Structure formats: structure tokens, C-alpha cells
Amino acid sequence: MRKYIYLVTLLFIPVLLAKGVFYLDYACYDRERLDKTKVDIYVSIPVQSLEFDKTSESVFAIKLYVYDGEKLIAEDKWKQKYTLKSENDKFSGNEIPALSTMYLDPGYYRLLAEVEDLKSKNVETIDIPQNSKKFSVAKFHDKFSLSTIQLASKIITNDIEKESEFFKQGVIVLPNPSKVFGTRRPFLYYYTEVYGLQAGNSVDYKWSISDKDGIKIKEGNSKSKKAPGNAIVLADQIPIQSLKTGLYDFNLEVSKNGSTIESSNNFYIYRTLDFREKAEMKFEDLSNAIEVLTEKTIDNEIRNISKDITADRSDEFEKNGLEAKRSFLIDYWVEKTKYDDKFKKEKFEYFSDLANKDYSKNVDVLSDKSMLEEFEQVYTILDKKDRNLADKLNDKGKVNFLKRFWETKERDDPDAREKFLYNVNLANKEYSLGNKEGWKTDRGRILITHGAPDKIDKETYSTDSQDHEIWSYFNGNYTFVFADTHGFGEFSLIHSNFTGEKNDPNWEEKIKKEIY
């Protein structure tokens, strides 16, 4: 059996890691112009990143440039308006999709995308270098072949508006340039076109999903479809609620008369549930779990057992407040469960779960010591203005600063603190060295500030250079280089092209080993 492999790893900018205010993706198709490839370039702008006027309107400009070396070979520019649908729309997490279609010769190019908020005058760019080969225009021919697999946020098959810019081959395909699915997008939609067919040809196809290690974790049933002409569309909806947070590959295998072609595209799953699980606290006993409950939760639990509360006890609550209620609740359940281990375990799990829900949502449950430690961790991601303010604060001021900081962040992103704490925990797990916690190391600081890199190149046990790592962030084209310059296992930042970080163009020379 003949087998042709087309591995399509396209531009991947996950929403958890993106530092800009828009997302970019593209797809290649064989259509309309035989000497060129049709390239659809997709842009999406989060509503919350835009500035709106008093009429709830925002205006932004999109500019796309394609270069071959220094030569500009294609460009597209346009303006769009967006009006908020409601007061909640601003922070709904919605994105505004846009599309540009170009016809290009097959090959590798530089793609430069720019979005300008015409209200705030803020300009953001994504620059994909030609030598990165991330913007690759496919070559199609009469042979059996596949277009790019587009991973979409939705495919509409009913009440079709043919005038829509997202209309193609009888359906509307709404793009998802971030390629992030999960909590807000529990279904993955895919769209691809099969070429090199004749009317009546039957193709067999089957999809699968594999994790970052290439292990197949989900697959569909094999299906068949007959071609109406020299091409056919394959599209479907796949439930992905069971996939945990992480990077995955969507794979599609298509067969015709003994020949098989395969293609894949990567995507990212983000589930808030997974971050709550990873930020979970552990408790030694029942009283320990009750000890950290918030006042609101304690009041709810007191109401649940109000029939067992005497008038004198109520007076004590009125006089001494939260601590009296907390102390009573601990004594009450310790006494109730002391002779029944099964019941004790049930109540322990119940209060542990309540405590973790409070912990994931409210910074007030932390002790002063924990708050000050979190303040130091947050300090690593502050801008210069906020650092100057933070440097002048006493301990009480730092605690209040931390509360206001998360209140502001979580208005835009309700999961902001959970994501931050997850990265802190990950830094401690991966980069702690001796008594030095991982978040205090250079690699930990960059992980917390920028999120996980899209790519890590590791060089160890080399006879030519000291051990080092190169972290690459595709969105923004940022690079961070860490080296174990002293040979003790601690990797320090020695070079970066990110503004404000250490920059040393001669870093490669400085980590070369001396040869005796």
C-alpha cells in the first residue's frame, strides 16, 4: 500500500501564553487559480483587549504583509468596527474573527501581522521569520492530496449566509486562530478538502487525537464518503470535554484505492478544573481544613447546624465574631466524628473540598506569612511603575496591594490567579535547587512572567560548550538563553531579545569550554 505523509504543524499561539492582543493562523487550499495556492489568513482579537468609546464602539486596523527575503510580495489592510452587545460582552472572553485571502506561489515566507486599536493607538505585531519555516505555502497538484486541516470554533450547516467571508463549500467555518479548546470550547471542529479525485470515487477516513508524546488517546470510527467531483470536503464535530489541559495533535488519515495520506494539526486544551486540582491544598486533619475557611463559608456551615446552637453560643458569636464561629465549628465536628472513622473521613473530604474552593477564589484565606510570600512572587511580574510603588510598602501595605492586584486582574480573567499559582508550583517543581525555591531562579521567573515556552532546545554534556537551554516564544519571537556557567546545576539568564532583560549578542562565545 502506498502511503504519503503530510505533517502540518502550523503557527501555534496558545491563549494561556500569548502576550499580544490577537491570534494568528492560516490554511492552504487548491482552488480557483491553478498556478497559485489559495491562502486564508485568520486573525482573532479578544474583545477585552480593545478600548471602547461612550457609544460602546471600538475601531481597529489589521495589516498583513508577506515577504520573500526583503521583497514585499503581498499585503492586505483594512479597518473593522465592533460594538459591544451588552455590558458583559467586554469581559466575556469572546474574540472577533477576521479573514484575508491571498494567492501565493508555494514556498516559505515571512508573515508580518499588525493590529492597531484606533481608539487607544496601541499597536501589536506578530512577526513570523522566513527562516523559521512557520509560514509555509503548500503545493497542490492533480495527485491525491489534502488541504490544511483547519481547526475551527464552529461549523454552521443550517441557515447559511453565502455572503459571509467565512463561507466555503456550502458551510460557514468560524476560525479559531488561537487553537485553544476546553472549558469555553468543549467541541473541536475540523474542516479539510481532499483533492485528486473523480466523481464517484469513495474515500475512507478516520481521525485520532494524540498527546504531546505521540500516544493515541482518542479516535473516531472509520467512515466513507463519495466524491461529487474532483474534490470533497471532510468536516465534523468532536467532543473533547474529557481531555486534560495540555498540547495535542489532531490526526486525519484518508485512503483511496490503496493509497493513504495523513495530515495533522496541533491544538491546546485549557480546562479551569485542572488548574484548581493542581493548586489544591493538603490538610492534616478535620480542624486544619476548617481553620482556613472564609467567613462566608463558615457562616453557611453555622446556619446548617443552627438547631444545635444555644442562645448563649449565639451571643458569643455576636460578641467575638468570626473566630468564635470558627472555634465552635471545629469543636462541633471533631466531637461529632470522633467515634466514627468513616463519618470523620467523609466530613474531612467535605471541608477539604470547601477549603480548596475558597482557596482558588479568594486570597483572604491566606495567612499573613503566605500573603507576603505570594507578594514576593507577584513582584516578579510587576511592571516598573508597580514595582516602584511596591518598594515603598510595609507588610500591611503589601497585603492590601496583593488583594487589589488580583481583584483587578480577575476582572479581566477570572482564572488569572490560578494560572499564576500553577506556574509558581511548576517552577518550584522543575527548577528548585537546594534551599532555593524554583520561582526564585531565572528560569522560574521567566516561566512565571511569560508562561511555558513554545520550544526548549537543551544542550548538555557537550565537549564544546557549557550546559545551556534556549527557550523560544513564537508569539513575539522572543528568546531566552540560560546557562549553567558554574557547573553546579543552576541555570542563569545570559541573553534575551526581550526588552528589559539581559542582552548579550556574544553569549555563544562566552559559554565555550576552554580546550587544554
Task: Tell me what you see in this structure.
This protein has 516 residues and is α+β, with helices and mostly antiparallel strands. Helix content is 26%, strand content 34%. The protein contains 12 helices and 26 strands. The protein has helices at residues 272-278, 286-291, 295-304, 311-320, 322-337, 341-361, 368-379, 384-390, 395-412, 416-431, 442-450, 507-510; strands spanning 2-7, 23-29, 37-46, 57-68, 71-83, 95-104, 107-108, 110-117, 123-128, 136-137, 145-146, 150-156, 167-168, 171-175, 180-182, 187-195, 202-211, 216-219, 223-226, 231-239, 246-256, 259-270, 455-459, 468-473, 478-483, 492-496. The strands form 6 sheets. Strands 1, 15, 17, 18, 19, 21 and 22 form a 7-stranded mixed sheet that branches. Strand 4 and strand 5 (71-83) form a beta hairpin. The longest helix is centred in the C-terminal third of the chain and has 21 residues, at 341-361. Mean pLDDT is 82; it is low at 1-20 and 277-281.
